[in-house]
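Obj: model holo form, ligand = pyridoxal-5'-phosphate.
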Amino acid sequence: MSFIKGLKCRECARVYPKEALYVCEYCFGPLEVDYDYAKIKKVLNPKVIAKRPKNMWRYRELLPIDGKPTDGLDSGFTPLIRAKNLEKALGVKELYIKDDSVNHPTLSFKDRVVAVALSKAKEFGFDTVACASTGNLANSVAAQSAKANLKRYIFIPADLELGKIVGTLIYNPILVAVEGNYDQVNRLCSEIATIYKWAFVNINIRPYYAEGSKTYAYEIAEQLNFQPPKHIVVPCAGGSLITKIWKGLKEFHKLGFIDRCDTKIHAAQATGCAPIITAFKENSDVIKPVKPNTIAKSLAIGNPADGVYAVATVKKSKGFAEDVSDDEIVQAIKLLAKTEGIFTETAGGVTLGVTQKLIKQRKIPKDESIVVCITGNGLKTQEALTGRIGSPIKIKPNLASFEESVPRF
Ligand SMILES: *Cc1c(COP(=O)(O)O)cnc(C)c1O
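Output (holo structure tokens):
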């Protein structure tokens, strides 16, 4: 049974059939999936959800596929962790980590969007998938398409971290490293997508793919017993995740699963690539593209496709936007590890660093509930920590050497 009415232009509201389309022919606005919420309400409610397996497909009526999900069957339902030690360190009352650094199968939130994209690509009859990626998407498309027996082409900027490259190559895709930044990779892929009949998950399948991000918000709400937090701090690259977290909460409100929708959504970027934050701070309706220069490579999109909507989300939800330097990113990665035992990648350092900043600026009050989005795993971006975390104490294999060299706690 299908709960999708079709696609609808986000700008002019013109409707389109549910096909592999992504831009409005009339106004060039992006297309978005349009659901039949009345029909969904008849079959879905918190009790029904609670009985289902603990993965992202427990919300399947709110995801844009017509048949049964075929991919990412173990993705999602990652832990929401009460961060007691971090609360103490930051002087706040109630703080949670939504931990997609342990998502299945490739340790980032991208497993959610790829699960939907591949399920949909198969419904459309594609036998080849592709993507333009800053790293995590490459990992997830490569892994999930291997399992799905799809042909796969992955395009990345040539200067990615080793962990992201190895974590893609291992699944045996055709991996193309483009000598340029992500925005150049993406432009090239848009051209290729007009010629080759491939499902580019974040280009021609984008309206469907992006919907997978909503499950991150559904889980936050469900894991807090349908009492959404006062604040969510979200890392932004293309700006899609942040808009979908807000959309997910609004949908739960519309369906009556939560009785308020007053969560403030805050945007986080690295200072070396902060076009969304700059537009917010300058109160501008346009995104000025930048040339990225930051260790947070997974967020290094200088010309974000959903940037305008990301800024609008922050404003509508009455949130704020901040950026942090590379040094602050490293400090935050270390703080999360030593307080909560969670090793996040540079993007997680961005979100936690921005959370600290917003608390200091009193834009997030210390007595209100906060969820920090941790979207990727630190083992993939080890370069960022080189020379910044000390080194092991080397000793000889005897007791004397141990007693001489090892300090006591
Ligand atoms: C892709 C990515 C994001 C942000 O995604 P957008 O939807 O493009 O804003 C956040 N964190 C990590 C680790 C990512 O890989």
